[in-house]
Amino acid sequence: MYELGVVYRNIERAHSETADGLAKFGSATVHEAMGRVGLLKPYMRPIYAGAQVSGTAVTVLLHPGDNWMMHVVAEQIRPGDIVVAACTAENTDGFFGDLLATSFKARGARALVIDAGCRDVKTLTEMGFPVWSRAISSKGTVKATLGSVNIPVVCAGALVHPGDVVVADDDGVVIVPRAMAKQTLEAAAAREANEGAKREKLASGVLGLDMYKMREPLEKAGLRYID
What we know:
Layout: H1 16-21, H2 26-33, E1 45-46, E2 53-62, H3 68-74, E3 81-87, E4 94-96, H4 98-107, E5 111-118, H5 121-127, E6 131-136, E7 148-149, E8 153-155, E9 158-160, E10 165-169, E11 172-176, H6 181-203, H7 208-211, H8 215-220
Parallel strand pairs: 2-3, 3-5, 4-5, 5-6
Antiparallel strand pairs: 1-6, 2-7, 2-10, 8-9, 10-11
Helix pairs in contact: 2-6
């Protein structure tokens, strides 16, 4: 049950260096490093290609067709934050556009992740303000219903607490719980180093069949080669 009509102002965020460090590894590596959890549903897509960010979550709960709380959450943004917006019911209206993006950017927000609609995509792209959204829609919204800011929310199937780390790129969005951020950064770095060594072998012509020692189990499974 969501708590409505509240704004929590003094949230504890993941350490900024840890949050910042996760960006370079990307959502896929971080998702794997964390044990294949925390991934938002794949319908959440970036409005333009190439953005790769991480930051600390400031959460907002919206009601369908109502973006009032997007203006409320703007006040709680601190430099390095990513706004994560959930909706109380499935909705694809255009909650967010270039004016709100201007406000968010002035406060230091790095991106928006919204399980609803976004609009003004051309201008947002020109501004370099990335958004991951459920939909793109010109349909406007009203300002009439109280939601909440900085409460735990479920966004596109993932639980997000204020202060968690958000990692987002062309492959998707993953949430790293604040308490797991440091160990996830270490695990992601180790995974990236391991993948780098594998990449070098594959580039030299070594087959995955041999690198991963797949031939014997494939033979046991009944694979036959026919000339």
